[in-house]
């Protein structure tokens, strides 16, 4: 009799233990499922948010067609009704000696065979540059001097620099390090043009739109209406007002010439935006 009672007690105790074990397993499973679900939802939300943000920053919705000609920009968008924003990673779309020793060397390195060419010690480095220029440019009351650094953006996303080397010295010696297309990198690897970007004039035309300066006014090549423009045809800022293909009603614009100051003269005609 005692043996039967003892056996029944053991059996009941075992059932309770199994029940408790199942309950703990279900709870753990529920917790794991809940955590996994929450993590997946969080990850999905984060990814969706990132994708949306990326799409927003690169949109050209509402941007006037003339600015979309800057094909080398990684994004172009409007900031309100006052600014056009361009971003670029500043890697020229043409070959150059300054791609040597970079991740692009195999595809984009090309030696310069000009006997007068003197390669500088810098190489091209990818870097994000953001230009904010006026959507409705107008003449400034007081002209500002152009900076030593990016003063505008060209069609292929490469910055325009002014007519000076470091310390606002003449480009006499520095010009020897310009590659076949008129550019070179500075010490931080920022590739740029001080003079005519011949890759663009070769492919777009010598009378074509080549980019914009920070004040929002366009930059054109060295020809207009079949004539080669000289410095004497331009004002002290290195521009003038006339109709162009892109602006048939006329606009003030800069012209690139073959002699100093090349792109811009004594300063910006308009009020510059920002670059960083």
Itemize the secondary structure elements and their pairings:
Layout: H1 2-58, E1 75-79, E2 83-88, H2 105-108, E3 129-134, E4 152-154, E5 159-160, E6 183-185, E7 191-193, H3 198-204, E8 209-213, E9 218-220, E10 223-224, E11 227-228, E12 239-242, E13 251-255, E14 274-275
Parallel strand pairs: 9-13
Antiparallel strand pairs: 1-2, 2-3, 3-14, 4-5, 4-8, 6-7, 8-9, 10-11, 12-13
Describe the 3D structure:
- By secondary structure, the protein is α+β, with helices and mostly antiparallel strands.
- It is globular and about 45 Å long.
- The chain is built from three helices and 14 strands.
- It has helices at 2-58, 105-108, 198-204, and strands at residues 75-79, 83-88, 129-134, 152-154, 159-160, 183-185, 191-193, 209-213, 218-220, 223-224, 227-228, 239-242, 251-255, 274-275.
- It has two domains: 1-56; 65-275, no CATH class.
- Helix content is 25%, strand content 18%.
Give the number of DSSP strands: 14
Number of helices: 3
Q: Can you tell me the number of structural domains?
A: 2
Largest sheet: 6 strands, mixed
Radius of gyration: 31 Å
Largest sheet: spatial strand order: 5-4-8-9-13-12
